[in-house]
User: What shape does this take?
Amino acid sequence: NINQVTIPDVSQRKAVDVMEALRNGYSWSGEMKLLRQGGALFDAIVSESPVFDEKGNLESIIGVYTDITNRKKAEQALEESEQKYRKLFESLPVGLYQSDPERRLLDVNHAALDIMGYKQSGDLIGKTSPGVFVHQEDHQEWLRLTQGNDQVQGYEVQLYHQNGSKRWVSLNSR
Assistant: This one.
């Protein structure tokens, strides 16, 4: 029985469910932990289909297993990298933001929220940057400076605080 030979304890419940589906004539595909011949666990994508004899009895299973260990390691490394980036982004004492090509705000850190007088990033996410510039000509100049330039430093402008007051800031772009 394939359940006893290649399915480790951590996947036994899933294996029982898969066998039930196969006995009922359904194919199955999904991720599962399997055992190598030497006993080492590995992650796999498994696709299985039942084969029935002329009496309708489950005769065999056609299965394909793809080792996704390297993909899982890459996903874990990416997750760890994203967590490090998020921690750095949120903890810097300098206001940071990210915007899309249409200048809608995609992300802002806590320091930027403090500068602008907001409590939550959701209050700014999706807003367009022209709405925060006191003088629209400053916004147009900022757009001109940042288009095609890899780096702009020290562009001083006034931005609106949430309470309507004006704040002087120095903008930098990379």
User: Anything to note?
Assistant: Residues 1-5 have pLDDT under 50 and may be disordered. Residues 69-91 form the longest helix (23 residues). Helices lie at 2-6, 12-23, 69-91, 110-116, 136-146.
